[in-house]
C-alpha cells in the first residue's frame, strides 16, 4: 500500500482535496470547508488515535504550529524550531546523549507530516 499525501485547498468559492502518492499522481475531490484541517492538527489527532502515552515524548522536526497542537492535545515534546541551528560532528566512537522517554519522531515541514516510531 502506498502512503497518501493529503493537501487541502480552500478558496472563496470551493474546497478541493488533492490526494496524491509518492509518484505525484493524484486526484482532486470536492469537499466541504469543515472537512479541511491543518496537518499539525492531524498529527496530534493521530497520536491520540494510537493512544500514544502522555508520559512519553515526541521529538519534533518542524515549526511552532505542530508544537502548539501537541501542547493542546497534552503531549510532551522536544525539538522544534529551536533545534534548527544545532550542529553535531559525527565521528567514530561518538556517544550522543538522548532522552530515553522519546518514543516518536515527528517530521512536520511545509504542512506535510510524517511520523516514525
TrEMBL record:
| Keyword annotations from UniProtKB, A to Z | Signal
Quick one: signal sequence residues?
Answer: 1-20
Check the record and name the InterPro entries matching this protein. Answer: HAD-SF_hydro_IIA (IPR006357), HAD_sf (IPR023214)
What is this protein's record name? Uncharacterized protein
Amino acid at each position: 500500500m502506498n502512503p497518501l499525501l493529503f493537501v487541502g485547498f480552500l478558496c472563496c468559492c470551493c474546497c478541493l482535496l488533492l490526494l496524491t502518492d509518492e509518484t505525484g499522481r493524484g486526484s482532486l475531490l470536492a469537499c466541504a470547508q469543515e472537512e479541511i484541517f491543518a496537518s499539525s492538527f492531524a498529527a496530534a489527532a493521530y497520536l491520540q488515535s494510537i493512544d500514544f502515552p502522555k508520559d512519553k515524548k515526541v521529538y519534533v522536526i518542524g515549526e511552532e504550529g505542530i508544537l502548539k497542537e501537541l501542547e493542546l492535545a497534552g503531549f510532551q515534546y522536544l525539538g522544534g524550531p529551536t533545534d534548527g541551528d544545532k550542529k553535531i560532528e559525527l565521528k567514530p566512537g561518538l556517544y550522543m546523549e538522548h532522552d530515553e522517554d522519546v518514543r516518536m519522531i515527528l517530521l512536520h515541514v511545509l504542512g506535510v507530516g510524517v511520523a516514525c516510531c
